[in-house]
What we know:
This protein is an alpha+beta fold and 278 residues long. The protein has 2 domains: 5-121, no CATH class; 125-274, no CATH class. Helix content is 26%, strand content 27%. It is built from 5 helices and 10 strands. The strands form 2 sheets. The chain has a 6-stranded mixed β-sheet with strand order 5-6-7-8-9-10. A 4-stranded antiparallel β-sheet has the order 1-2-3-4. Strand 6, helix 4 and strand 7 form a beta-alpha-beta unit. Helix 1 (34-42) packs across helix 2. Mean pLDDT is 87; it is low at 1-16 and 24-29. Residues 1-22 form the signal peptide. Keywords: Signal.
Amino acid sequence: MKKIFSVITAAVMISAMFSCGAKDRTKSVNNLNDWQKEVLAAEGLPTEADQLTDSQLRSIQRIYEMITYLNEKYDEEFIYGGYLEPAANQTETLYAYPRLLGADYGRNTVTVRATKDGFTDDYSDRSIVDYAERMANDFMKDYFKSDQVIAFFSVNACDIEKNEVVDGDFQWKLGVSDIIFVNEDICNTDQVEEFAVNYAKWLYEHELDGRHRINVVKDYDVNNMDYGNIREYYESEDYIGFYSFAFNSNKNKVYQDEFLSTRNENEYNIEVFFSKYN
């Protein structure tokens, strides 16, 4: 069974399937299907219902209900990734990813949560984040007239669907964390702030919120990076430094942080920040 345990933090992978619990020898035996048995075997658990604890049996039943909800809602197959049992301060949650897209180091993880009326999921959020990421990458490559820049987006908050985006306007309803890598051949440490200001203007024009980190690297083709290995470069000898920024909630200030030759933090009125390279 292909799983994504390596790309979701251990904290969220604590599954009720590992709960011990007492076995109720008088309970009726529930039949398990092949899919459920495959998941149990991958976890190193018994594949017969009468050998599971009550907690484990309930969990595998709920996992199947939640994965079936995804499969039927989107008419495609999802791969199981992890499960959180319900608790006092914890919502019952399933993690999965679409087979067609693959796990992509956790980037395509879909979260399903139980509600009093059934289930909710965030699969639609992924498509709008992909859309925003493509727009940003197109802007950057056009800005530099080079392919030696790449951005990776992940969602922080989303209250908009893709069909509600008109002319690239996200209406401040999408918040992302974007990690950008740019080769110093096209953007060195003296040029990164000017790029950041122009990128901030582009984000403001498209009403796209979030935290934005621009990393400068040397002697490396950024097109060889992917979502799974980007953090390795923070400690690489090819890594030079970063420049990051974010808008405040009222969108009238910019909080800026950098570690290039030295570490600096600043707060700007947004008009002042936008006018730095006029």
